[in-house]
Automatic annotation (TrEMBL):
<dbReference type="GO" id="GO:0016787">
    <property type="term" value="F:hydrolase activity"/>
</dbReference>
<dbReference type="GO" id="GO:0016042">
    <property type="term" value="P:lipid catabolic process"/>
</dbReference>
<dbReference type="Pfam" id="PF01734">
    <property type="entry name" value="Patatin"/>
</dbReference>
<keyword id="KW-0442">Lipid degradation</keyword>
<dbReference type="InterPro" id="IPR002641">
    <property type="entry name" value="PNPLA_dom"/>
</dbReference>
<feature type="domain" description="PNPLA">
    <location>
        <begin position="11"/>
        <end position="232"/>
    </location>
</feature>
<keyword id="KW-0378">Hydrolase</keyword>
<dbReference type="InterPro" id="IPR016035">
    <property type="entry name" value="Acyl_Trfase/lysoPLipase"/>
</dbReference>
<protein>
    <submittedName>
        <fullName>NTE family protein</fullName>
    </submittedName>
</protein>
<keyword id="KW-0443">Lipid metabolism</keyword>
<dbReference type="InterPro" id="IPR050301">
    <property type="entry name" value="NTE"/>
</dbReference>
Length: 357
């Protein structure tokens, strides 16, 4: 199908660590070549998708880039930062400061520090552009709901929302990438904020102050709840878009479930295997629902999957991409080129019936 040029775009960026970040960079490059970045009005992201979006904005002085700016300046800056700085080691280096030892069990706070120090992400949520409206998605451990950060505020529908004020963007990005067992949660002290809530069917402006039962909220990776980052723009339960006038572009760099089982009945990796299966099934259900929605009308959206098995794509490039580790280590230039080229080619194939370069 050919992406319509007269519709606003809702851009969805999945998780997947540094692999996802580079894949999304390639997808954005193709959109920029179509001069389509100017049509992006909504963005929803989790994990690696959130990190790369934060870096895109930082590289353009916290303004959404035009297609020309992305191709001319931002793309090169992204390559430099992704190949020069390791967020994984940057977070570890935060422990060299004794004042950070208190974050050993909530290591997302360390990642936030690394994002400020290594990438220079020093803005607050309120500094973000109002358009495109960007939803940075996390997961509230206490209630299992999607916790979202936006230009105007943050929270979830059960506990309520607060105004963004001077809340650091780096902290929001760290929440979105705080995968359990990797970085762990970011701890949010609830008494520091004024939480407001209204009934779901009440009009805007009817919010009332509420008190939370939890002194601290533990905020995890948005991928725990939805590793596609799709829910902000698409209602999977009803199988329909929340913004029917938008063309939804889903950039999915999730790693497919591997084949095999760790040996040994008491092997702890067998437990993580069960979690991987559960996550894979949740992901598959969202993908199937979205594909069914798009099949009803090709101008509704498109899924750009890293695991696209089209015979017109380079099979070796696909294999390299899907098997690339889910880490936050820096890339080599060759890794960057391979992953971004694969993202570019998948986007070109699915958005314009093009042939891979």
């Amino acid at each position: 199908m050919i992406m319509p040029v007269d519709k606003p775009i809702a851009l969805v960026l999945s998780g997947g660590g540094i692999r996802a970040m580079a894949f999304h960079v390639g997808v954005l490059r193709y959109l920029a070549e179509l001069e389509a970045l100017e049509h992006v009005t909504r963005i929803s992201s989790v994990s690696g998708g959130s990190l790369i979006m934060g870096l895109v904005l930082k590289c353009n002085n916290y303004r959404w880039p035009t297609s020309k700016e992305y191709l001319g300046e931002v793309y090169g800056r992204l390559q430099s930062d992704l190949c020069r700085r390791s967020m994984q080691w940057g977070a570890a280096r935060q422990l060299l400061r004794p004042t950070n030892w208190r974050f050993l069990l909530s290591r997302a706070n360390l990642l936030a520090g690394a994002l400020r120090r290594e990438w220079g992400i020093a803005a607050n949520l309120s500094d973000l552009p109002a358009s495109p409206e960007w939803s940075i998605n996390g997961t509230t451990a206490e209630n299992g709901r999607r916790f979202r950060f936006k230009h105007s505020g943050f929270g979830d529908y059960q506990y309520g929302y607060v105004q963004s004020g001077d809340f650091p963007l780096a902290n929001a990005l760290a929440v979105s990438a705080a995968f359990p067992g990797g970085f762990g949660p970011l701890s949010l002290k609830t008494e520091q904020f004024a939480w407001m809530k209204r009934p779901w069917d009440a009009p805007a402006g009817s919010e009332e102050r509420v008190s939370l039962n939890h002194r601290i909220l533990h905020l995890y990776d948005g991928g725990v709840y939805d590793n596609l980052g799709l829910e902000s723009v698409f209602d999977a339960g009803r199988g329909r878009s929340k913004y029917p006038d938008h063309f939804i572009v889903v950039s999915d760099a999730g790693k497919p479930l591997s084949d095999g089982l760790a040996p040994g009945q008491l092997n702890p990796f067998r437990f993580t295997r069960v979690l991987d299966i559960m996550s894979d099934q949740s992901h598959a259900l969202r993908v199937r629902t979205f594909i069914h929605y798009v099949q009803g009308d090709s101008e509704r959206g498109s899924l750009l999957s890293m695991d696209d098995k089209s015979s017109t794509l380079d099979g070796d490039a696909r294999s390299t991409a899907v098997n690339f580790p889910t880490t936050l280590r820096k890339l080599t230039k060759n890794d960057f080129d391979q992953l971004t080229r694969h993202g570019y080619n998948v986007a070109r194939l699915r958005l314009a019936d093009g042939t891979p370069s």
